[in-house]
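Standup notes, structure subgroup. Blocker cleared on the heme C input:
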Amino acid sequence: MRYGRALLILIPVALLAGAALAEEDAGPAAETLLDERCTLCHGLDRVDAVQTDAEGWNTILDRMVTYGVRLDEAERETLLGHLLESEEE
Ligand code: HEC
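Run returned:
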């Protein structure tokens, strides 16, 4: 019975950890990036107004980087995935 009780505690912990990890590479991280990095010079309406493909977004992101936006490789991927996903809605 000792193991049964340990499992009862471990399962919710594992589920919570899993949920936190899932959130990491999906929407919320990208939303945070948008809020923190992309609202310094213009509103997100500017971002929402653009409909383009991966190439188009890369061109725009390159331009934003020349304006001073900091984006490392992983952040760029996250953001790009999110921007392309939003196009399909
Ligand atoms: C340092 C200031 C600055 C930051 C930070 C910034 N932008 Fe911009 N952004 C601009 C300026 C200036 C323009 C208008 C000139 C232009 O389109 O190049 C613009 C225009 C845009 C446009 C419209 C482009 C078009 O072709 O219509 C989009 C989309 C955009 N930004 C996305 C972003 C995203 C996504 C981020 C965050 C990664 C971001 N911006 C962060 C300065 C910034």
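Discussed briefly. Residues 37-38, 40-42, 46-47, 50, 60, 63-64, 67-69, 71 surround heme C (CB under 6 Å).
Next: hand off to the docking folks.
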